[in-house]
Each structure stands twice: as structure tokens, then as C-alpha cells.
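Hey, sorry to bother you again with one of my protein questions. I've been puzzling over a protein and I'd love to understand its fold better. Take your time with it, there's no hurry, and the full record follows here:
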Amino acid sequence: MPADSGVDGPSLLEAPVRTGVLKNFKDSLLKNIIKRAQFAIPPLSLMILGSVEVPGIEHHICDLRFETFPLDTPWDLIGISVQTGAVKPAFELSALLRAKGFKVVLGGPYVTIFPERCRDHADVLVLGEADEIWSDVLVDLKHDRLQKEYRVGEFPDLSQSRSVTKDILDPGNYFTTNVVQTSRGCPYSCDFCNVHVMNGHRIRHRKISDVVREVEGFLEKDRRIFFFLDDTVNADEEYAEKLFRELIPYRISWVGQATTKLGENPRLLDAFSRSGCGALLVGIESLAEESNRAHHKFHNPVERQAACIRAIREAGICVYGSFIYGLDADTVAQADAIEAFLDATGIDVPGINLLRPIPGTGVFDRLADEGRLLFDRNDHDAFRFSWGQEMLYRPNKISLDEFIPSYTELTKRVFSVGNALKRAAHAPTLRSAVLMFNLFYVHMYGLSRSDLSRQMEELAESK
């Protein structure tokens, strides 16, 4: 489902709604830009489920970011993956489909964490990682004995060989269809993240031979860039080095997510570089150590960050550096610190985010208990998580009257056309992609500033 925030298409926060040729053209143009600028990729979870084979059952994937749902087809069962931040449109679609007589199954992160909020919106719920129980759903569908709920008892064993097919995807919808996951689970406990809530703290690996075979098979149909979707692809350094050394002969290009600790492991950094790693997203969060610790992030000490990032870039790998401005120990001095850090490290694509307290995470519950949320904690539709278009909470050490101007001025300075050109010129690789991403952010942070300005006016009027 596309989110309400505008990141998957024209912003729904931009009222009023228009119809007609001009709007349709704008929607189509923006979606195409977003698809390319964000390296739009297919939903791996649906690819995995679509690869489960049960005789007599066919799967089809409809990605509503780019496609219109085919209501004129007599589907036997329609599954919707519900992401936090797209709950309202998911429920609305489910209601429409059920009103037309279709059976609907809901799954995904939000359903797993909040099943009691979803039961009235579906015929069937699937809770948890569905790799091993989706076949049960399909068999029961085939024999007309669908249950109300399917719940995963234990995390799936990823070492069991399961092939993933791309045959049901439309490759033209995506920047690439080469999406691969080698592991699940996160050993860390950052309170603003729900990965460890959803997938556990223990890292579960696929067999390296299975991953290599999958890469080899994917290359036969799509030789574009690979996305390794592990939340931390270097979490198990021994596994990661072995895997990527085995991938060197395939001469792929790939991107992924890692911690800056990679810069302190020359052997692993060499394996990443030689296997074709072009870019990594790294979570820096705050440059104030007290802020990271306040949110249970202990694994990347601030004093080592700059050297690690420089080492990664010197190995020929671009760095997308993700910051969260407004954590609990942050002051307005963080704005200047972030800008200076960008200059010192040469980060190729910066992301300067507002804290998004996601329902189901520790920080959401804590901020709610402290009375710092700006919305009713029970109104999950009020929260938009894909983009920082609204403040959702009151920072701990900065008033909103100080914080919003500080944040908007920072993004205005950082995200300019001049800076986009400069970052692209200095990027170690993937220069056209770096340019596209930075120009896209010039536009999106402009939208964010407009929404925040409107929110400030509304807050002032409510006083």
C-alpha cells in the first residue's frame, strides 16, 4: 500500500484533492520520479509468499504504488500486507473488497503487533513471518476451510532452502527486481526501531550456498543492481565476509544497509568492495552520545563515526548517512554539528529525519506515558511514518517553537541544488544515482518545510 505521506506518490497532505488530466499527469510523473529516485523495489515479503507452491493455486502481485487493483477479476483470496503508516488506506481497501464479496487476508508488521485492531477489517489474519504457514493458508483455501487466524509459533528456520521466484513481477515497475535477504533479526535494541520486535534479537541466516544460487538465478532475468535487504548486512562479520567473497566472481553491483563499524574491519570492507558494493545506508542518528544512549543505541560510538565513514568511502563505497534530529539529549547545537559532520566526512547522500515514534516500539510507549505525543496514542491513523512532514512529539530539550525553525533551516542549507551537484561530483561511484537522490531530497524536504510551517501555524492558533 502507498503511504499517506507522499513518499510513494503525490502527498495526501497537499489538499485540496484535484481530478482531471493535469492531476493524472502530475501523479504519473511524480510516481515515475519517485520510483527511480528511491530505487523502488518489489515487496520481498510478497515475493517470498508468491513463491510458495500449492497445486491448483496461482499467485499474482499487485503493487498499489504503481498499479490499479483489478477489481473485475474473480479472486478467491486477496492478501494485503499492512505497513505501519499505511493502515488507513489498507483498511479502506479491505472494506471495499469485502463489500464486493472478496475474501481478504491481512498480514504484515502492523497486523502482527496489533491483531486486535485488525480483526474487524479482514476475513483472515496472518501473524508473524509467514514463510512456513502460508502454505497452510493456501491448502485451507483450496479445501474451503479457511481459519480466522494463522499465527506463527516460532520464527522460521531460514537455513531451510526455499527458492524465491520473480516470475509474477512486472520488471518495468521497478528500478530493479534483484532483492535478496540473507538474514533476519537484529542484535540491537534501539527503542525507535521495530525490527527486533518483529524479527527477534537472534540473527538467523540463510545458507550461503542458497543465497549464491539465488543471485545466480536472478541474474538470468535481470542484470541490474542488487539490493541486499538485511537490516544490518555486516551484523555477523564472519558470515558476511564469507558470503560476499563467494559473490566476487559474479561481478554484480549491490547496495545495502550496514553499521559504520564496517569501516574498522579492513578484510570485510575489502570483501564488500570487491564483490561490487556501491552504496550503504548507515544509521548515524545523533552526534550527541547521550542521545543515542537515551534511545538504547550503543553500538556506534560517536567519536569513531567520522573515521569509519571515511574508510568506507575510500574503499569506493558511497555512504547514505541517516540522522535523527530531535532525540532526547539533542539541543539546537545539533543542527550545526550535523552540517559540520557532513562537510568533514563527505557523506554522499544525507538523510536528516525527524523521530517517528512508531506504535509498538519502546519510544512510542515512553513518549505517550510522558505526555509528549502530539496525537492521541490510540489514534494510529494520526501518525505518518514515511516522511518528516509533521512533528509527532515534543522534543525533550528543545521547544517546538525553537525546533521546527532549526530543523527547517538546516534542511534548507543541506539540501540545495548546489550541494546535490557537489556531492555527485565527489561520490566514489554511482554518481548519477547520488545526483538523482540528492535532487529528489531537495524537492521532498521542501515539501516537509511547507508541512511543518503549516503545523506551526496550527499549533500557534490552538494556544
Observations:
- The chain is about 40% helix and 10% strand.
- The longest helix spans residues 431-462.
- Residues 186 and 196 are 5 Å apart (CA to CA).
- The radius of gyration is 22 Å.
